[in-house]
Amino acid sequence: MLEKLLPSGVATSELLAYPEDLKAHPAEEHLIAKSVEKRRRDFIGARHCARVALEELGEPPVAIGKGERGMPLFPRGVVGSLTHCDGYRAAALAHALRFRSVGIDAEPHGPLPEGVLDSVSLPAEREWLAGTPDDGLHLDRLLFCAKEATYKAWFPLTLRWLGFEDAHITFEIDSRTADSATGTFHTKLLVPGLTTDGGIPLTTFDGRWMIADGLILTAIAHG
C-alpha cells in the first residue's frame, strides 16, 4: 500500500503479519533489552522493513541505531522513516542525493480519543473537519496521521521539535467510498525552517494519504 503514496526512488517495505521467527539485529538488541513484548515487536518489525528497503536501494542491510528523540539512524547518504501501529509495520527509505527527507505514518482507521483533537489541531483545521462530510471516514485521525508524517520529515533536517500547532495542514480528497479514500495534503510550516544540511529552509511539505483495509497511511518525500 505504501508504495502507492511515494514517488519512484523511494524504497518501501511493509509487514502486515509478524513472522514468529523474526529476531532483533544483534547490534540493536541493547536498544530494546528492557522493552515490553509489543514494543519489541514494533521495533524489530519496522527495522526489518528498513533493512529490506536498504537492500532495494543497493545498500547493505546494517543495524539501525536510535538518535535524538528516537530518530532512526540510517546509513550515511540514506534518509527515511519508520512507522508502526497494531497489525502494521513499515519503512520508506531513499538516497539523500535524491530526496532531503522522508516522513511516513500509519494509524488505525478509527476516531481520535475524546479530547485529543483540540490538542493536535488548529482552529482552521477543526473548521475544515466540521464542514467536511466524513461519510464514515475518520478524518480527525487522518489529520493526526498527516501531522506525524510532517514531524518525521521535519525533524531529521532541523533537529528541532515541531508542535502540532506549528503546522497547518490542508487536504484534497481524490476518491472515496464508504470505507476507503485517497488524496493529497499540503503542510504549511508556521515556524522558521532553518535546516542543518545547509539547504533551502523548510516552508512547506506536500504528501499523499490513503485510507484502506482499516488503516490510515500518510507519506511525504521531500526533494
From TrEMBL:
4'-phosphopantetheinyl transferase domain mapped to chain residues: 101-176
Chain positions recorded as Mg(2+) binding sites: 105-107
Residue ranges of every copy of the 4'-phosphopantetheinyl transferase N-terminal domain listed in the record: 27-94
Pfam (any one): ACPS
UniProt entry keywords in alphabetical sequence: Magnesium, Metal-binding, Transferase
InterPro entries linked to this entry: 4-PPantetheinyl_Trfase_dom, 4-PPantetheinyl_Trfase_dom_sf, 4PPT_N, Enbac_synth_compD-like, P-Pant_transferase
Record-level GO BP terms: enterobactin biosynthetic process
Keyword Nucleotide-binding: no
Gene Ontology terms: cellular component: enterobactin synthetase complex; plasma membrane
GO molecular function: holo-[acyl-carrier-protein] synthase activity; magnesium ion binding
Cofactors (names): Mg(2+)
Residues given in the record as CoA binding sites: 39, 47, 83-84, 105, 148, 152, 162
Protein name: 4'-phosphopantetheinyl transferase superfamily protein
Natural source organism: Nocardia coubleae
